[in-house]
Amino acid sequence: MAKGNRPTSPDTRLVSAGRRKEWTGPVVNPPVWRASTHLYDNMAEHRDGPRHNEDGRFFYGRRGAPTQWALAEALTEIEPGAAGTMLYPSGVAAIAGALLTVLRPGDVLLMTDNAYDPSRAMGKGLLRDFGVETRFFDPLDVAGFEATICGQSRAVLLESPGSLTMEVQDVPALAEIARRHGLVSLIDNTWASPLGLPALERGVDISIMSLTKHVGGHSDLMMGSVSAGEELYARLRKRAQSLGQVVSPDDAALALRGLRTLGVRLERETASALEVAGWLADRPEVALVMCPMLPGSPGHDLWQRDFTGGCGLFSFVLKGGDAARRDRFIDALELFGIGYSWGGFESLAIPVDPAPIRSVAAWPPAGLDGTDRFGIRLSIGLEDPADLIADLENAFAAMDPK
Ligand SMILES: *Cc1c(COP(=O)(O)O)cnc(C)c1O
């Protein structure tokens, strides 16, 4: 813990966050507290227990113990403006936990059209079943978003950049419009984390992350988090408790370990992604590179204005309309695994085909020949970028065999 109230930079906070002496004892990291039952000293203390439903107080395993508390507190410390953070067993559970906190039957949820597919499915399934209607809006159309707001609109879910197609939204403008109309604004901030986009400082009410990705960082755990200011945090906490949400102390310890190196991993990934994306932009086989950190890439100006960092996740579109070529390309990659998730130390590639799931925002985007629609998403890991580029070069050769 930082002594006193000296302001510290995000990198310094990553090291000190959540390391309360009463949780760590004489060692550096909080031990793994595996516990369902918490024992009370006597009847008087037992009677007192339920009356003190506070963070950092022993009660019963479902409310966590110091390992989970340390992780939640650390995440709060790195999200400026947050009063607290709830942990969930996955990123999807975090999104559901947040939406079920702010929505009631009869409400309308506005959702950005580039949202993560399970978020979209939640709108059309779970939320619809509970009497909430979801309407999608073009992620880049700020005026269109305001025009979509109606009397029943209660909340808006943003995602920037979109995790497949990388549209950068005007987050401050959308959050301001939401506030003016009395809507709660939520953002899926998995791509940037608070290190790259301090979402609450940019005006958003609720910041959601899949910790499975960068915070875990080693492809060995599933978890999600939701951070918010005081009033919304109290509501999130109550709803998460009533849904019985809890994460394991072993996973919390792994996530804490990942968090300590988040800053250096993101920096390295960003630098490597820029190198790879710049190289791809010059390839004759590539129609478009969608990498917000890359000058000239869609969304770069907004990214530069609003973000304080990037990450290794970006997409590109191949020229031409032949799906088999893309399959050959991905199959030829040796250093990139084919798999979901991202943000681990190892590089991954998956195909991107958003056209069938879009409601309002067109795909392929304006400016592309209608046949250029086969995308590939890369998650750049910690390998040497020169090796990754050589692997991609080999895959281009395999894609169009002589
Ligand atoms: C992976 C992901 C999620 C869901 O996280 P899980 O931990 O896999 O449930 C949510 N949002 C985005 C943008 C993601 O990439």
Total helices: the number is: 16
Number of strands: 12
On the 0 to 100 scale, the average pLDDT is 95
Strand content: 15-25%
Give the CA-CA distance, first to last residue.
61 Å
- The helix content is 25-40%
Molecular structure report:
The protein is α/β, with parallel strands linked by helices and 402 residues long. It folds into 2 domains: 259 residues, Aspartate Aminotransferase, domain 2 (3-Layer(aba) Sandwich), CATH 3.40.640.10; 137 residues, Aspartate Aminotransferase, domain 1, CATH 3.90.1150. The protein is built from 16 helices and 12 strands. Strands 1-7-6-5-4-2-3 form a 7-stranded mixed beta sheet, sandwiched between helices. Strands 8-9-12-11-10 form a 5-stranded mixed beta sheet, covered by helices on one side. Helix 4 runs parallel beside helix 12. It is globular, with a radius of gyration of 22 Å. The model has no long low-confidence stretch (mean pLDDT 95). The chain binds pyridoxal-5'-phosphate. The site of pyridoxal-5'-phosphate has 12 residues, from helix 5. Pyridoxal-5'-phosphate binds next to helix 5.
List keywords for this structure.
Aspartate Aminotransferase, domain 1; 12 strands; 2 domains; 402 residues; binds pyridoxal-5'-phosphate; globular; alpha/beta
